């Protein structure tokens, strides 16, 4: 499990390391989250939101985080 989650907001799919509400699979619409590209955005968990293009900065940062995860914790190399 990666320590970040994708969140549609402001016309793009961003990623955030903010905690999600207990039991939630996504940030509910209206949730204020801090993204990996260091923006403060309001989550828009609508169906159309997940079709928005991926934020380049968040994508780059998400890949960096994934690469830096210790491979022993997942039991496989990336
Ligand atoms: Zn972003």
UniProtKB/TrEMBL annotation:
State the source organism's domain of life: Bacteria
MF (Gene Ontology): zinc ion binding
Q: What is this protein called?
A: Zinc finger protein
The UniProt annotation puts the region (Disordered) at 1-25
Keyword terms, alphabetized? Metal-binding, Zinc, Zinc-finger
- Show the Pfam families listed in the entry: zf-HC3 (PF16827)
By its UniProt entry, which InterPro entries does this protein fall under? Zf-HC3
Whether Metal-binding counts among this entry's keywords is yes
């Amino acid at each position: 499990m990666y320590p970040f989650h994708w969140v549609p907001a402001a016309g793009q799919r961003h990623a955030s390391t903010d905690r999600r509400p207990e039991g939630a699979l996504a940030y509910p619409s209206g949730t204020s989250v801090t993204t990996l590209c260091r923006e403060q955005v309001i989550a828009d968990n609508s169906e159309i939101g997940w079709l928005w293009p991926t934020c380049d900065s968040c994508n780059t940062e998400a890949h960096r985080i994934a690469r830096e995860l210790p491979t022993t914790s997942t039991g496989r190399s990336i």
